């Protein structure tokens, strides 16, 4: 395994890019530690696959370097990088048995057959497919085919990183959680460096120790699942992660206060100065309570989602979502909303613009 470093990386599909908009990947500096579980999370077209192709060697970046440990591998061919990849659609040979599919990457490298047998049986046990080793792959269910595809990536011991490109997209929803859990178990058992690419926040947050959130070719935040939820550094992160996502409220800054719909809103800390831009308040539905005083609102609708209720209220022309487990109001009722100041932030042009209480960001 290896520590992976992306240093000053930037990529454009144009031969002579003239400005930031010509770059599919904006400049980034990232380091993934040996043995970590990481996710690239973002919507279609945000640059996840471009970045994955650069790491794997299918693309050469326009600028910057890729280091495995301290070795510059930017110009190395894919075959020389010792990377295993698991794709959206299972890559297996239907005419081969499960055993032969798992053995193929090792036999292709002329590994001794005794070692092949040991590795295949070990990975099969981890994947819970030992009873299928003699079965032709053509007869497997889609989730078991993807298990075997994963196993082909895991069976080698000489790899620097295992990369998963949307591996659960074609799996039935009721089976996804099983494979997600199994993948997490495998990471804990093997200690391999794993990078998981997905547009699904649940997959990213349940698998990864650190998540890289991307938008329009730019890394907008890197953090643990808790950090991304508790303190989004960009409104995109707040909106993209969470269900429903973070409330984004248009506001004005008057002196040292943020004012929404004529009411000053208490924030987590002091507002940063030094740049101008569009200002908005961000607060998650979980961090707003129904109160006896606060922002006056009218209930538009209430949705019972099982564990709690989601109240959609209107303040002026702005819709605000609130999550509550008790005291559910009725549609059309007038209520008061109280955002938690410790969890309420100002954003300027999308980026966080308040200091954390008691410390600087």
Automatic annotation (TrEMBL):
Protein name, UniProt field: ABC transporter ATP-binding protein
Keyword Ligase among UniProt keywords: no
Superkingdom as given in the UniProt entry: Bacteria
ABC transporter domain location: 4-241
Membrane topology category: Peripheral membrane protein
Cellular component aspect of the GO annotation: ATP-binding cassette (ABC) transporter complex, substrate-binding subunit-containing
Listed GO MF terms: ABC-type ferric iron transporter activity; ATP binding; ATP hydrolysis activity
Source organism phylogeny: Bacteria, Pseudomonadati, Pseudomonadota, Alphaproteobacteria, Hyphomicrobiales
Localization terms from the record: Cell inner membrane
Family listed: Belongs to the ABC transporter superfamily.
CDD domains: ABC_Carb_Solutes_like (cd03259)
Keywords assigned by UniProt, alphabetized: ATP-binding, Cell membrane, Membrane, Nucleotide-binding, Transport
Pfam families found in the cross-reference section: ABC_tran (PF00005), OB_MalK (PF17912)
Gene3D superfamilies: 2.40.50.100, Nucleic acid-binding proteins, P-loop containing nucleotide triphosphate hydrolases
């Amino acid at each position: 395994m290896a520590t992976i470093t992306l240093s000053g990386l930037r990529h454009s599909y144009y031969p002579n890019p003239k400005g930031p908009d010509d770059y599919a990947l904006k400049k980034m500096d990232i380091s993934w530690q040996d043995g970590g579980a990481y996710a690239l999370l973002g919507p279609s077209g945000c640059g996840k696959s471009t970045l994955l192709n650069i790491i794997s060697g299918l693309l050469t970046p326009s600028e910057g370097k890729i280091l495995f440990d301290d070795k510059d591998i930017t110009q190395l061919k894919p075959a020389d990088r010792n990377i295993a990849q698991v794709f959206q659609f299972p890559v297996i040979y239907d005419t081969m048995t499960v055993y032969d599919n798992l053995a193929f990457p090792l036999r292709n490298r002329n590994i001794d057959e005794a070692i092949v047998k040991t590795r295949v049986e070990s990975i099969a046990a981890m994947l819970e497919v030992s009873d299928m080793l003699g079965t032709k792959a053509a007869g497997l269910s889609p989730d078991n085919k993807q298990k075997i595809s994963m196993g082909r990536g895991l069976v080698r011991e000489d790899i620097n990183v295992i990369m998963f490109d949307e591996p659960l997209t074609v799996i039935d929803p009721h089976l996804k959680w099983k494979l997600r859990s199994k993948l997490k178990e495998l990471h804990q058992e093997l200690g391999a460096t794993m990078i998981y690419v997905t547009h699904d926040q649940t997959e990213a947050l349940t698998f990864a120790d650190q998540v890289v959130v991307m938008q329009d070719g730019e890394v907008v935040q890197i953090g643990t699942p808790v950090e991304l939820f508790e303190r989004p550094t960009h409104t995109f992160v707040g909106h993209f992660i969470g269900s429903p996502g973070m409330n984004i409220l248009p506001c004005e800054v008057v002196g040292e206060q943020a004012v929404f719909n004529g009411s000053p809103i208490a924030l987590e800390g002091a507002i940063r100065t030094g740049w101008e831009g569009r200002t908005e308040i961000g607060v998650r539905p979980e961090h707003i309570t129904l109160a006896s005083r606060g922002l006056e609102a009218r209930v538009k609708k209430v949705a019972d989602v099982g564990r709690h209720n989601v109240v959609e209220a209107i303040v002026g022309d702005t819709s605000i979502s609130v999550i509550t487990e008790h005291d559910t109001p009725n549609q059309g009722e007038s209520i008061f909303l109280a955002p938690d100041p410790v969890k309420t932030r100002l954003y300027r042009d999308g980026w966080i613009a308040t200091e954390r209480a008691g410390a600087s960001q």
